[in-house]
Amino acid sequence: MRVLVVEDERVLADAIATGLRREAMAVDVAYDGAEALEKTGYIDYDVIVLDRDLPRVHGDEVARRLVADRSASRIIMLTAAGDVDDRVAGLDLGADDYLAKPFAFLELIARVRALGRRSAPALPPVLERAGVRLDPGKRLVTRNGAEIALTKKEFAVLEELLRADGAVVSQEDLLDKAWDEHIDPFTNVVRVTMMTLRKKLGEPQVIETVPGVGYKL
After folding, report:
1. I need a labelling partner for 1 at 20 to 30 A (CA). Which of 27, 170, 180, 203 fits?
2. Strand residues in the chain grouped as ranges (E)
3. Distance set, CA 211 to CA 78, 157, 168, 215, 216 (Å)
4. Sequence-separated (6 or more) residues with CB below 8 Å from residue 42
5. Average pLDDT, the chain
6. What angle do CA 119, 43, 67 make, to 5 degrees?
7. Do strands 26-30 and 47-51 pair parallel, antiparallel, or not at all (unpaired)?
8. pLDDT digits (tens, 9 = 90+) for 68-102
9. What are the backbone dihedrals phi and psi of residue 198, each rounded to the nearest 5 degrees, phi first?
10. Which residues make beta-bridge pairs with 121?
11. Would you say the C-alpha torsion 172, 173, 178, 182 has a positive or negative sign?
């Protein structure tokens, strides 16, 4: 899942980003509304965690522009104001969800995951194919009933392959969904991660390389 955190309080923004990355999400950060609009102009995010009170371009205006541009990104709006009128106003702007500060981080994770599922075609909460079973909520992977310990990136890559439901996933798509904007597009990190993932999943191999195209499970 690719997430953009838009929050002008840098300590909070970085803490949210770090926490989401621990959940195997690819996270970028913008510290004001103008930077957020710049990033959304060339990156398709699954979910945007959007603070309402932003400098340069207000969070309300960011939401309006995203809706006007028919962005497929789901928006969860954060604000220090938590009364009903504020929640209604945020939702009327086009936000999909609303969370008042201070909030429990576990609740934010759950809401981001829920919105991520809504940004793509409906899939069961537990993904399964070829004996490989992945539970995003529990961060649990098994093959034929045996639990497999994966790194965050291996988990994210496997989740994208399972979500593709047998279709080929390109290296570019894997970089886009499992890593953030700072990754070198010419890196071999996908190939290396795929090698370790195949080794951990064991025999017979279930991940197929499609030369010149990508990978599929």
Report:
1. 203
2. 2-6, 26-30, 47-51, 74-79, 97-100, 127-129, 132-135, 140-143, 146-147, 208-210, 214-216
3. 44, 18, 11, 8, 11
4. none
5. 88
6. 55
7. unpaired
8. 888 889 999 998 765 666 667 767 778 899 898 88
9. -60, -40
10. none
11. positive
Amino acid letter, 172: E
Indicate where the chain has its CATH 3.40.50.2300 domain(s): 2-118
Dihedral angle over CA of 127, 128, 134, 136, nearest 10: 10
Q: Are 37 and 68 in contact (CB under 8 A)?
A: no
Question: Could you tell me which of 80, 11, 88 has the C-alpha nearest to residue 52?
Answer: 80
CA separation, residue 144 to residues 54, 201, 203, 215 (Å): 48, 10, 11, 21
45 confidence band (pLDDT: 50, 70, 90): very high
Which regions of the chain carry the CATH code 1.10.10.10?
A: 127-216
Q: Which CATH architecture has domain 127-216?
A: Orthogonal Bundle (1.10)
- Distance, in Å, from the CA atom of 14 to the CA atom of 28, rounded to the nearest integer, reads 10
Report the alpha-carbon distance of residue 162 to residue 217 in Å, rounded. Answer: 7
Phi, psi of 120 (to 5 degrees): -125, 170
Write b or e for each residue in 168-199: b if 16 or more Cβ atoms lie within 10 A of its Cβ, otherwise e. ebebeebbbbbbbeeeeeeeebbeebbeebbe
